[in-house]
Specification:
By secondary structure, the chain is mainly α. It has a single domain, classed as Amino acid/polyamine transporter I (Up-down Bundle). Helices cover about 80% and strands about 0% of the residues. It has 19 helices and no strands. Helix 4 packs across helix 19. The longest helix is centred in the first third of the chain and has 43 residues. The protein is globular.
Length: about 450
């Protein structure tokens, strides 16, 4: 069954694909701006602790369930259930995860399209085509429809190739490119006036803020949701992992990769904000709060690039290519969630399923574009603030309470002898049973306020 479904051909292929799913726009702009708004290095320290104590155990729950089931989220959760109620609950959780992943992709594709448009605007600026650049960077119905279509075509083309020739092949190309662009941009930005103030704000902690409940909840949410948990993406990727692999080691590597990129991105975004401020660009609102993330990316940083002359055009191109790549590596994992279900549970051909589902999601994106003011924010809030936390909670419940302990131990033993006697297994069951659900509920209650 595993061979027919496809598997990742290498350890590094899985790590790059899973890390690519986790490393999206939220890591590149979300984490740095969260840090800048919540005490800088104090937020960073709390985030690092919670990422390992909370996000890693939750990630392992999805990966272990996925590899055991070798199936999509619906079949996997239904398969580990022990009775009629939990089987129905598992299937329902899987279905809601599919819908949530599809809705997230519907608005994610719009934002990913904006990144491509802004990257092309940098090219047209270099070529001396200001009218075209203005059209590419101004909000319009035509631009949004065109570039969400471009972004979805790229996503569909990759998923059509399957696990090895699609997901793994392109993630092993895109992720090194993302890292290279990120590092080059950091090196350049750190040479600019004002960057040192940003570095100090990011790396020198204000220890008095570490116990701030708002900071802790914010860091907890970022740690959990930046790992792409809850909607079944990691479960699906785990289902493509060979039984020969050490699943705990793989999960640890993905967590380190994701955290590393998020923290590294902070070394770009936070110093860039202070460089912008040094160059006369406003980065705080009238109330003294850091401006919103979307305004930062699409207004403040472009204004910064404009103050840098010709070099700014090249930096703008590199930056928005970085953002487009980050968006694409996440979008392919989202599309794989419904596609895997259609192929395995409905017997559809992969290419046909990918085109049909990709087209349906593009249609939803178009509806959001035509009703942007009323629907876009609603869908973002519905999926990320409400659906995703509850799905993450249910994943932990299934891994910690529903799934039989003996079967879990047997699954962990695959790929390495004695792994169930290690430190991970001594800590993980308690975390996934008690700490993770409690933390997710705390985040959810905070979101309701």
């Amino acid at each position: 069954m595993a061979t027919a479904r496809g598997e990742f051909s290498s350890r590094i292929g899985f790590i790059l694909a899973a890390a690519g799913s986790a490393i999206g726009l939220g890591n590149i702009w979300g984490f740095p701006t969260q840090a800048a708004s919540n005490g800088g290095a104090a937020f960073l320290l709390v985030y690092l602790v919670l990422a390992f104590c909370l996000a890693f155990p939750a990630l392992m729950a999805e990966l272990i369930i996925g590899r055991h089931a070798k199936s999509n989220a619906v079949a996997a959760l239904r398969g580990i259930a022990s009775g009629d109620f939990t089987r129905r609950l598992g299937a329902g959780t899987g279905y809601i995860g599919i819908v949530t992943a599809s809705l997230i992709l519907s608005f994610y594709g719009i934002v990913g399209g904006w990144m491509i448009a802004y990257a092309l605007a940098a090219v047209t600026d270099i070529l001396g085509m200001p009218d075209t650049s203005a059209w590419l960077t101004n909000f319009s119905l035509e631009r949004n429809l065109l570039f969400v279509s471009v972004f979805m075509v790229l996503t569909v083309a990759i998923i059509c190739g399957g696990v090895r020739e699609g997901i793994e092949k392109w993630c092993t190309r895109l992720m090194p490119a993302l890292i290279a662009i990120l590092v080059l941009l950091i090196v350049y930005v750190l040479t600019l006036d004002g960057a040192s103030d940003g570095v100090r704000a990011y790396l020198v902690p204000d220890f008095s803020r570490i116990t701030d409940p708002a900071l802790i909840l914010s860091a907890m949410g970022q740690a959990f949701f930046s790992m792409s948990l809850g909607v079944g993406t990691m479960l699906i990727y785990g289902s493509y992992v060979s039984d020969r692999e050490n699943i705990v080691s793989l999960g640890r590597s993905v967590t380190l990769f994701d955290i590393g990129i998020a923290v590294t991105a902070g070394m770009l975004i936070v110093p860039a904000m202070y460089v912008a401020q040094h160059n006369g660009v406003e980065i705080y609102d009238a109330a003294g709060r850091l401006i919103a993330e979307d305004t930062l990316i699409f207004t403040v940083l472009p204004e910064l690039f404009n103050t840098m002359g010709v070099a700014g055009l090249v930096v703008a191109l590199a930056f928005f290519l970085l953002m487009a790549v980050a968006a694409l590596t996440s979008s392919i994992s989202m599309l794989e969630v419904p596609v895997a279900y259609a192929v395995e549970s409905r017997g559809m051909n992969r290419k046909r399923a990918t085109f049909m589902i990709g087209g349906a999601i593009l249609l939803v994106s178009s509806v959001l574009i035509f009703n942007f003011g009323t629907l876009f924010g609603f869908v973002v809030s519905l999926t990320t603030r409400y659906s995703q936390p509850l799905l993450g909670l249910l994943m932990c419940v299934f891994a910690g309470w529903v799934w039989q302990r003996s079967t879990v131990i047997e699954e962990i033993r695959k790929g390495t002898d004695g792994s169930d006697n290690g430190l991970f297994w001594k800590i993980w069951p308690g975390y996934v049973r008690f700490v993770c659900p409690a933390a997710i509920l705390a985040i959810f209650v905070q979101q309701l306020r």
